[in-house]
């Protein structure tokens, strides 16, 4: 693939927090967590998730996905036959096995929890 | 004129509506329209187009005929963010790009690919753009900018059309009304002479076209024959600096128009500062209906050579208030330097209060420019650029996140909440 490198390769030896957080700034979005489906993975309601739109996701990644028409954020898993499904990090939530469609929107690359309103 | 150039035109499909669908996943595949703040439909998603929604259409008309179509307020800051991202991604493939308008980018890819490889090149770029932006773009490739632009419209959404110099005849059936640069009056005039398609025009010898028509049409005919006459707007080494922005739908109110001017003033000042230059005078202008090809301009002299957006904007605002006419449909705005640029200012022996203030503004601008650079060129805007948009925030789209205790929004698109 053609490319001129990312903005982080600018010759300086000090990088910003932003450059560290955002591997691909032009593909990164913010989404906020509503609900406790990922509580056991220390993602709480109200947390902000940095989500990167990418084609390369692996089993074990936390992904934003459309499953049979619903959008959710879950762990991406693969069963023994290599079929993908989604799993919460909270026993109260069932495993989600796609009946018709599973489209991965992006993967969660960081979780931000801000305290107070500053 | 350059021989055997390869130009690419990247065009966002239903761009404003697509940005809204990208940031609110519930609206994927649903019919939506944009323009609620102005009470008219200014952009529509493909799903709404399929239902028969047309633009412009009044909000009342839309609600009556298509109650199932959601009408959202436009969020130009969001569209600018997506536009910047689109340009950043294209720039990683090729450095020669033109800023173009908000939903499109032209690139001269002659140096980075060949006619043989351009399909794979364009496919890779298209795939990356669609994945990373969460929306679709169509790409046209041709030996001239005009042909590339016509080609990108051949197949949409997510089309890729390559018109090689050997197969220009595929353009011959295209109606001239679909050719960029041909306005309503020219189209009528040509139609009156039986010239309706590109083929009809190109049957004529170039010399005859030159005899019968004006220069823009002569140039256009060259472009349509595959000889590049138009080149990308270059960004460096220019003697004058300007910025022009056309709107998808005309603007009729003062505040949004001022916002557009402010953005363009910012852009011009940024270019000036990059060249370490200042301008002695600035020209502002606009194009408006019905005569959309004529640029109406006014030139204002700066009290001292300047490249500060705040200084220039306050001059421009006064001038703009004087020339603004209610119920005029503004189609484009222009901001440019006038006369020779001043390069570097000489150090004065004694400094005055004004010099001190100027120095402070210079420092601020240096900081702003370095921030812009560090952030990879994300748009920082003056407060006046943002003023017009405040009332648009509560329009049903997924808004950009606010930064607490400021008037700013975060420069990362927000996708709302998810369970």
Which CATH first-tier class of the domain at 242-388 in chain B would you pick? Alpha Beta
CATH superfamily of chain A: Umud Fragment, subunit A
Strand order of the largest sheet of chain A: 1-2-6-3-4-5
* CATH fold-level label of chain A: Umud Fragment, subunit A
Can you list the strand order of the major beta sheet of chain B?
Answer: 7-8-1-9-10
Largest sheet of chain B: 5 strands, mixed
Family (chain B): Belongs to the DNA polymerase type-Y family.
GO molecular function (chain B): damaged DNA binding; DNA-directed DNA polymerase activity
Protein name (chain B): UmuC domain-containing protein
Domain UmuC (chain B): 7-183
Write up this protein.
The complex is a heterodimer of chains A (118) and B (419). In chain A, 4% of the residues lie in helices and 35% in strands. Chain A has a 6-stranded antiparallel β-sheet, with no helix packed on it. Chain A has a single domain, classed as Umud Fragment, subunit A. By secondary structure, chain A is mainly β. By secondary structure, chain B is α+β, with helices and mostly antiparallel strands. Chain B has a domain at 242-388: Dna Ligase, domain 1 (2-Layer Sandwich), CATH 3.30.1490.100. Chain B has helices spanning 15-23, 46-51, 59-65, 76-91, 118-133, 145-152, 184-192, 198-202, 206-212, 215-224, 254-274, 309-323, 353-374, 383-387, and strands spanning 7-12, 32-34, 40-41, 43-44, 57-58, 70-72, 97-98, 104-108, 137-142, 160-162, 242-251, 277-288, 296-306, 330-343, 414-418. In chain B, helix 4 (76-91) packs antiparallel against helix 5. The radius of gyration of chain B is 23 Å and the shape is globular. Chain A binds chain B through residues 1-4, 7, 16, 18, 24-35, 37, 50-51, 53-55, 64, 66, 71-73, 105, 117-118, and chain B through 23, 25-26, 28, 85, 88-89, 91-95, 112, 121, 124, 127-128, 131-134, 374-376, 401, 404-405, 410, 412-419. Strand 1 (28-33) of chain A pairs parallel with strand 15 of chain B, so a sheet runs across the interface. Chain A: Pfam families: Peptidase_S24. Chain A: This is Peptidase S24/S26A/S26B/S26C domain-containing protein.
């Amino acid at each position: 693939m053609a490319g001129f490198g990312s903005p982080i390769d600018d010759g300086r030896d000090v990088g910003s927090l932003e450059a560290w957080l955002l591997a691909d700034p032009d593909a990164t979005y913010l989404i906020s967590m509503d609900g406790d489906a990922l509580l056991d993975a220390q993602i709480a309601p109200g947390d902000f998730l940095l989500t990167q739109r990418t084609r390369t996701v692996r089993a074990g990644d936390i992904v934003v996905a459309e499953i049979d028409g619903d959008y959710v954020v879950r762990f991406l898993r693969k069963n023994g036959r290599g079929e993908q499904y989604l799993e919460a990090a909270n026993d109260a939530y069932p495993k989600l096995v796609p009946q018709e469609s599973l489209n991965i929107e992006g993967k969660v690359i960081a979780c931000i929890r801000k305290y107070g309103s500053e | 004129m350059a021989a055997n150039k390869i130009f690419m035109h990247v065009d966002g499909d239903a761009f404003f509506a697509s940005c809204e669908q990208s940031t609110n996943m519930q609206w994927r595949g649903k019919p939506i329209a944009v323009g609620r703040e102005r009470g008219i439909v200014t952009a529509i998603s493909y799903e709404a187009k399929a239902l028969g929604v047309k633009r412009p259409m009044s909000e009342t008309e839309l609600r009556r005929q298509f109650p199932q179509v959601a009408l959202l307020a436009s969020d130009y800051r969001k569209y600018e963010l997506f536009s910047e991202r689109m340009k950043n991604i294209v720039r990683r493939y090729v450095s020669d790009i033109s800023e173009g308008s908000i939903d499109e980018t032209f690139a001269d890819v002659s140096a980075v690919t060949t006619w043989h490889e351009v399909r794979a090149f364009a496919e890779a770029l298209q795939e990356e753009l669609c994945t990373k932006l969460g929306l679709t773009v169509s790409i046209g490739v041709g030996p001239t900018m005009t042909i590339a632009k016509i080609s990108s419209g051949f197949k949409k959404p997510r089309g890729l059309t390559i018109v090689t110099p050997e197969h220009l005849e595929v353009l011959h059936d295209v109606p001239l009304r679909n050719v960029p640069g041909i306005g309503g009056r020219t189209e009528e005039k040509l139609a009156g002479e039986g010239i309706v398609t590109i083929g009809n025009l190109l049957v004529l010898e170039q010399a005859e076209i030159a005899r019968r028509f004006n220069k823009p049409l002569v140039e256009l005919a060259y472009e349509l024959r595959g000889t590049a006459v138009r080149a990308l707007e270059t960004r460096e080494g220019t003697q004058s600096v300007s910025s022009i922005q056309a709107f998808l739908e005309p603007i009729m109110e003062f505040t949004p128009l001022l916002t557009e001017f402010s953005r363009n003033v910012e852009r011009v000042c940024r270019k000036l500062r990059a060249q370490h230059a200042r301008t002695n005078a600035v020209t502002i202008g606009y194009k408006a209906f019905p005569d959309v090809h004529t640029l109406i301009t006014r030139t204002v002299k700066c009290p001292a050579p300047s490249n500060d957006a705040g200084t220039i904007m306050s001059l421009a605002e006064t001038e703009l208030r004087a020339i603004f006419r209610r119920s005029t449909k503004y189609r484009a705005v222009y901001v440019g330097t006038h006369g020779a640029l001043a390069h570097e200012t000489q150090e004065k022996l004694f400094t005055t209060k004004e010099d001190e203030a100027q120095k402070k503004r210079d420092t601020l601008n240096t900081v702003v420019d370095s921030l812009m650079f560090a952030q990879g060129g994300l748009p920082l805007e003056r407060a006046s650029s943002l003023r017009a948009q405040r009332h648009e925030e509560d329009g049903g789209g997924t808004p950009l996140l606010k930064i607490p205790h400021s008037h700013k929004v975060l420069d990362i698109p927000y996708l709302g909440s998810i369970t």
